[in-house]
Amino acid sequence: MFFEDKAIEIRKTGKFSRQDIIDAETLHFMGGSKKDGTPYHPEFFDLKQQFINAMPVEAKRLAQKKFNKDKKTHTGTNFANLSNYIQNVFSDMEIRGAMFPQLMTGAEDRENMKTRRIFTVEQKAILKQMDKIVKGNK
């Protein structure tokens, strides 16, 4: 399925609830923008930009390492340069993991995301604001 030039990945739910997967995948859309640059969800988009700008050096190094590996096997604008990769892939992966840690397949990754210990204080505050938008007052 496509929304403009964005593809939605369809996968089997396996051990994950369908609702968790739908909620998590919706984050791509909420943090994205239309072809003309207009954000789909301006408040969430702005928070995502703040989250990216607050990335520590270690996260930027990890993004570079993953980008170098992924660009060998992936194509499209998300993999055209590191900036696009961080904007559309890496940051979404981190935000989705932090908001839905139960979807992480590795135990260590799940714990890191659940506790949010890998994020800066500033990123944790941004994630709390994102939680309110996506999950309400849960």
Helical region count? 6
How many angstroms does the end-to-end distance come to? 30 Å
The whole-angstrom Rg is 15 Å
Largest sheet: 2 strands, antiparallel
Form type = globular
Number of strands: 2
User: How helical, in percent, are the residues?
Assistant: 55-70%
Helix-strand string? EEHHHHHH
The computed structural class is mainly alpha
Give the low-pLDDT segments.
none
- What is the mean pLDDT? 85
Strand content: under 5%
Record the strand order, biggest sheet.
1-2
What does this protein look like?
With 138 residues, this protein is mainly α. 59% of the residues lie in helices and 3% in strands. It has six helices and two strands. It has a two-stranded antiparallel sheet with strand order 1-2. Helix 1 runs antiparallel to helix 4 and helix 2 packs across helix 4. The mean pLDDT is 85.
Descriptive tags:
single chain, 138 residues, mainly alpha, two-stranded antiparallel ribbon, 6 helices, 2 strands, 3% strand, globular
